[in-house]
Fold each of these.
Amino acid sequence: MKTYLIKRLLMLIPLLIGISLISFFVMHLAPGDPTALFTDPNVKPAELARIRANWGLDKPVIVQYFYWLKNAVRGDFGTAYLINRPVTEVIFERLPATLLLMGASMLITLLLAVPLGVISAIKKNKFFDHAVTVFSFIGMSIPSFWLVLMLMLLFSVQLNILPATGMYDPLIKSSSLFVRAGDLLRHLALPCLTMVIISLAGITRYTRASMLEVLRQNYVRTARAKGLPERIVLFKHALRNALLPLITLLGMMLPDLFAGAFIIETVFAWPGMGRLGVTAVFSRNYPVVMGVVMMSAFLIVIGNMLADICYAVADPRIRLERRD
Amino acid sequence: MGKMRQILCLILVCFALLGCSFQQQKHASRSIDKSGTLVLCLGGEISILNPILSSDSSSSSVEGPIFSGITKVSEDLEIIPDLARRWEVSPDGKTYTFYLRDDVKWHDGKPFTAHDAVFTFNSILDPKVNSVRRGDFIIEGAPIKFAAAGKYIFQAFLPKPFAPFLASMGMGMLPEHILKGKDINSSSFNQHPIGTGPFKFKEWISGDHVTLTRNEKYYGGSPLLSSLVFKIIPDENSRLIALEAGEVDESDIPPNDYSRVKKLEKVNVFEYDSLTYTYLGLNLARSIFKDKKVRQALAYGTDKKQLLNLIFRRLASPAYSPSAPVSWVYEDEVNKYPYDPEKAKKLLNGKPLEFTVLVNQGNKEREKAAVILQWQYKKIGVKVNVRVMEWSALLKIINSPKDPKDFDAVIIGWSLGLDPDSYSIWHSSQYPAGLNFIKYDNKEADRLLELGRTTTERAKRKAIYQRLQKIIADDQPYVFLWYPKSVVAVSKRVGGLSRPGPAGLFLNIEKVYVKE
């Protein structure tokens, strides 16, 4: 297991370098450059050329890449254009907002979706299952921007009980931690609810399918045949195996936890990573784009690796296969 | 991002021409809340809070109340004293002497002097500082020299007379005692600015909001608001909901939502002409547009009334020249090419014409205009293809310094600033590198543009720019489309607003208040 781990970790290095190389070139292939957005008749082309040179953009892309790589391996992802601050600082500033929103909504989604999926599978083709299926599909098919507007109109305008935008109430004067936490939770409520509604369906369906798959297995039939109570068959034998694929799913969700959700963050004016990344792409803020891409890439490979390891730990069949 | 239009310099006086609604001043009966907070909203992220480095409108909006300049702009769009009490111009038009106020303190208590002004402009001129404003202070290759002739006397020596100079003296001043010897590009000052304006910086939560507090020692008198918050809300619909829910006190209103917002009880809606115009730019480097008759045919074939009815209802007015009706140099007596498809067909003389028009994605008005023009021009026998592109990609095409550029036509806009100088847009030297990306080349226009910059006498300048508008309207290198109106909704609890106009409702932010 130890050599396997070390091998996996070492493989990450060329993988990440490859990702960075491709992203860097693809990013520079997109037409436009960061100074193009200073479109103002009083700004002379010579000034833009001077600023591009100050940013090192006058050098060939391959040279720029090696400069970037040389600094990146030392943990320096460069200085964001316009914002004029280290990229790592800009990213870490936005990270807490994203972790809070994504973490809370993923947790709530899992706590709701897993039981719903399991019960649906057990009650397959009964009323409960149909109801969950119908609601899942409604949740999946509602356009998120429309759902958001409806939630905002209901809770913020009609009932006026929850704030529609932002993460903090700038008018709060009290410095009491309790008041501030309450304020944060109130601001979190609507974006979190939206995220849950949107992602609930997928995981519910996933759990249901996985549970059904397991219920069809021979060992479940055997358990039933030897007269075990249904409760034990379901929860002791079936559920544990049915939840295994969820590990993969969680591994896949890990990058989202950090990457944020652009549309939700935009409509709720939530100051997260999604907005940072997309704004950076549109304004061709290359250092920020690279920073965000590399962070996501790192989390994706780590997420996959963790999922594989957890899977191996949780499922003896996989471990046995590997020893062969 | 669609808002990223451009700043030309124009001074405006003709408010009589504006169709503005004045309603706000009457209801000041309720008492002023001295501890009140005003929450304004911004559509874009704030990048940096340093007036010589920032280049986006959100950052400028926040810098406005923190920093002050040597001069400022009045409601009538005249240049008036701010940190200077008065100024003198030498008879040769090359030396400006500004007599500064001696009662101005930085937010940290240190006095503001002429040395700060010299430091600010020299920093802009420093090639290592990433300031896009540097070109404003270089006239034909020679930089303007700045000097302090005393603690409160500040002088600028121009290499030659340059009329637009005074407009650029509104630049926010930087404190020398904090920034001297530091790397201005990366200083932490840019996140914790110190200025001389009516509001002091308090906090900036990235992507969420910036809070400013009252500067009681402001030389223009203590502001009436206790604090001022700028909240960032990127989505248009969310801004409206935040306004309805009372989370912000002000929001821009897109044309589609005008009638709905007008019905809201809690807000006043202001509409006023802005300093921008939208046009169909024709690439004159393309053989199809070289003939003036073809351009005029397109102008005759454009039904502007129908175009505006379909897109804006009444929140825009038709444009005919490269100036705006609110400008003091605006000339109404230009060739307006009234809609006449028969005349258009006659001018085209049966020649087949087909071209592609570029338009930036996400700008609903321009996207609609492209489709409507496609349909209108079909009636005069011209085939138009519409290509919708991302903003940066579109700019890359029109800004690429090559000749000819890879486009036929583009729907885009200019946002005009305080001075009428439009050299960078129309002068033939500004092609292929420069903003004359359609390759407009007219000797008489070139001469007028050069003359307009060096003439300081107002009446003469006005005549020059009016003549220029006639020439350009006749040449029709752009088919001028419309002047959009700014529509802004402000909560009824807010008072002390400026007269609605291109300078904005919150121009004198120290006089704005909220009612209890």
Note: The radius of gyration of chain A is 24 Å.
Amino acid sequence: MTDTDDLTDDTGVCRRGSTTSASAVRRFGARYGGRCISASVVERKEDVFLAIRELARAKLRFILLGGAIGLLVFLILFQQALLGGLITQFIGALRNQSATVLVYGSDARRNLEGSRVDPSTVDAVRAVDGVADAGPLGQGTFTARADGALADATLLGYRLGGPGRPTSLNAGRLPETDFEAVVSDGDSSKGFTLGRSVTIEPDGRAIRIVGVATDARYSATPTLFVSYATYEAARTTANPDAGPITPSAVAVTVDADGDPGAVAGRITAQVPGTEALTRDEAISSSPGVSSVQQSFYVILGLFYIVVPLVAGLFFLIITFQKADTLTLLRALGARPSMLIRNLLAQVVVVVLGGVVLATALLAGAAQGTKSIGVKVDPTAIGVTTAVVLGLALISSLAAIRRVLAIDPLRAVTGKDVLG
Amino acid sequence: MKLALRELRRRPSRFAVAAGVLTLIVVLLSFLGGLLDGLFLGSTGALSAQRADVFVYSANSRDSFLRSRIEPDVRAEVAAVEGVDTVGGLGIGLLTAAVPGQQDPADVALIGFEQPATGIPAPPPDGQAFADRRLETAGVRVGQTLEIGRSRTPIRVVGWVRDSNYLLQGGLWVNADTWRATVSAARPDLRVADGVMQVLVVSGSGTPASLAERIDAATAGATRSLSRDDAILSIPGTKEQRSTFLQIIFTTLAVAAMVIGLFFSLLTLERTGLYGVLKALGSSSRQLFGGVVAQAVLVTVVALVIGEILTIGLTAIAPSSIPIELTASRSAFVAVGMLAASVAGSVVSLRRVVRIDPASAIGTSS
């Protein structure tokens, strides 16, 4: 460490004329980043470690900056994960079922929960050109008794073997008779476990769980894929006053070479009282999904603006503070490119440090929010890191401009260098 | 302290960037808070408006309005409980309504009620409804006849009410008979028999908790009674939404504190020499640090004012599908949080200010 003797005394002021180091130091003991460095550093002008060493010396400042950036990146990552998790929680069952077109009642506002179609609609839809198969789909939220305790459960009733069966089975098998079910995963602690039975309150018949499907919840409740008859029975159990039970929607698969969008258009046009949507349309227009998405995008956008502003502001200020030292370095022959490299190296280190902190926080938060499906997604972290790093580098342009504006001549003429 | 304020006045540009960042953070906080309030109120308004002490659900409903059913005999048992003054029924159906002259139907929460609530007068006659102002954006006007659900049951809007929605669907308040008839026609699978309501709203003497306990005991476990606050939080998603948003809001406040800490510690560093001189001239650490805090607070106040104005503007141009609700209490919360963050952030500079040695002012440059 002969070239970086810390010449700071208790008051944080450089002792010039120190006898402990090279002659350059005696002449040019200077402040760099709030600490004193010896000028012999300058002689090794390619020393990129200067930037790193400054980080180590001015710990508090860089920890604060890294911490602020870390928290902001964490918030961005957390909200992205939350958004993805929430949406999967709400419409996972729609995404992971076999029907590529869903036919709602035209007054349903594209909401499965609020949709009802006449039973005759199923046959009418099946007759439409391009439809391979069509079957009734019933959806309802019920109070179920699982493992002795009451729990919310969504039932999705479909014609066994027909459209609407779960496609993300990870254990067990599909239901083959009435009162068998495939359950969404993640709720085994509530008794929704392979091999167990659940009943619909108050006095429904036991529904045996024969399979488990990944990411298949609906409305953030445990979801059971059952036969349509099982769904009808559950409706009557839950409300003995109920009139005739009608399907919520018609689940449709299209011909092998068919285009779901075109088929959906034909169904809407040809079958009165219906609005047919492709699976993707049904997902994105589910209640809440679009408004939640928009709200989150606005918030994420604002966070993305704050990160580079904070980083840019910080580096601009420390560049101003180091102006004397930088002038001196330039006068001693350091090329602007070297100073800029140092600056950019610091930006990268600080941002990456922040990302590491953010990832750690996210991993912790994901443990606490498993129930709402927050997962640590490496791709999202990678993309966010790249964007944040890019924005931070762009925002450091202000500091770079300041570095380029330094006139080495001032080291000789300006009285602001050595007082 | 005077010096600190003078610096702010003379060289405002020096603080502009920090103020800008803080302004953005204020916008973020206000927006997040407004969204939380909007989602919360839009989901719970119908329940918050009730004047009841206790909400009585059927025991197997899992506190879900839509799944609860209270039969007339249970209702009689509840009414007979000691200390119960009034018992009213409440029922909600989530349906759609065709609006005259509009292509798209509107999402409505058809709410059957028996007793007036805050801002909602006594139930209107059969076939008539009070509509929530929220429905105005869907094209609903007073005097119109809406057609509810697939059965196209006509209901005439006779007046406006406010903050009375349920699960972000516009409240349409009708009397109990109209509610039963309309829900049964529009959704046969949800049909409600005569005299049945979903939930009872009860007011009476004693604490809500003891009243709830007495009611559940009297019905031998056929009911589950909740205080109003618990009933509001039992609406699906409400609790999770609130805790998630509050986490984000508090983390954002921590970022604000760090930004302030960062900025003012840099500024303090820059002034090390100056502070040494001031100390040599007799200023105390307390005075100098007071100046730093005063500057931090003032910069924050400026950011708060600009941030609030920006938020109001942003809210005005935001699409109506984003349910933002700006309230005075939320603004106060943001202001207090930001001021606390500014003081907390400036404490970072305290150590440095205290450590400055007035002797350094003499003989050395810095």
Note: DSSP finds eleven helices and nine strands in chain B.
